[in-house]
UniProtKB/TrEMBL annotation:
InterPro entries: Fatty_acid_hydroxylase, Sterol_Desaturase_Related. One of its GO terms (biological process) is lipid biosynthetic process. This is Fatty acid hydroxylase. One of its GO terms (cellular component) is membrane. Keywords: Membrane, Transmembrane, Transmembrane helix. The chain crosses the membrane at residues 7-28, 34-51, 72-96, 108-129. Residues 113-246 form the Fatty acid hydroxylase domain. Pfam families: FA_hydroxylase. GO terms for molecular function: iron ion binding; oxidoreductase activity. It is found in: Membrane. The keyword Membrane applies.
Length: 283
């Protein structure tokens, strides 16, 4: 095995996560403007693409499937909506009375850790519910319609479903008094984690697979099966999956032709058709 591939498989996930989050926190501590985070996210995507080519899990997933333009639109729309949501946070906080118990005296990395743990709980439960409530599933199915898994399509979601997950994850934090600088960092952390969850890197994380919800565990969730794919709902951690009894690991993660929406090989591939599909028919 070439040395570069070996190092990428072993070190990519922890270095990517800690490196980019560490850089984001450092920028925030030094007073960098929020628009520096999208630039950092662009660099993260470039690193992700490079790692996927050095050590691919499924080489064919590195090839476009006529989905590059659609995925770019999904990512641009959804990331822009998150930016607008964070910009609106001071207004929302002013309208909704909060508890004002946020640990503002903690180091910024500690505040981000609190935000990640709390958001992970809310988003995981919203995700779990989206596989059991038909109206939510019809929106969430857009995300499951992908025909390959690579870092960029972690950002592919129906805007309405993203809004539901965002509300479930962030509303409790707003009530606690989360400040805007932590909200920016949380939004960045979610994007970084989504890239890692859907990455086409053949990463090896050892025992961390039982607690960290990155690609080796999350690929099981994208199996085109209403039973075998109904697992591993966690965003950042697998803690809630262990409690819900929905955790799964193993070497039998899906390959080409095994992911997608179960029973819907005809699921729309275009962006506008995907936005309309939940309202046209059940999936």
């Amino acid at each position: 095995m070439p040395l570069a591939r070996f190092l990428v498989r072993l070190g990519y996930a922890p270095v990517f996560f800690a490196g980019f989050l560490g850089a984001a926190v450092t920028l925030a501590e030094r007073g960098a403007p929020p628009w520096s985070l999208p630039i950092l996210l662009g660099l993260a995507l470039a690193v992700s693409f490079a790692a996927e080519r050095l050590a691919p899990y499924e080489p064919v997933w590195n090839q476009p499937h006529g989905d590059a333009g659609r995925d770019l639109i999904h990512a641009a729309v959804n990331e822009a909506s998150i930016v607008l949501s964070v910009l609106a946070l001071p207004l929302v906080s002013g309208v909704i009375p909060g508890l004002d118990v946020w640990p503002s005296g903690w180091p910024l990395w500690g505040q981000l850790a609190v935000a990640i743990v709390a958001a992970d709980f809310g988003i995981t439960l919203a995700h779990y519910a989206s596989h059991r409530i038909p109206a939510l599933w019809s929106l969430h199915a857009v995300h499951h319609s992908v025909e390959r898994m690579y870092g960029f399509n972690g950002l592919l979601k129906h805007p309405l479903h993203q809004a539901i997950e965002l509300t479930a994850g962030v509303a409790p934090l707003v009530l606690l008094g989360m400040p805007s600088d932590v909200a920016w960092l949380l939004a960045f952390a979610v994007a970084i984690q989504l890239i890692l969850q859907h990455s086409n890197v053949d990463m090896k994380i050892g025992p961390l697979i039982y607690i960290w919800a990155v690609a080796p565990a999350h690929r099981h969730h994208h199996l085109a099966s209403q039973t075998e794919g109904d697992v591993n709902f966690g965003l950042f951690t697998s803690l809630w999956d262990h409690l819900l009894g929905t955790f799964r690991s193993g070497a039998d993660t899906p390959r080409t032709g095994q992911i997608g929406v179960s029973g819907r090989p005809d699921y729309p591939r275009g962006y506008l058709r995907q936005l309309a599909e939940p309202f046209r028919r059940g999936v």
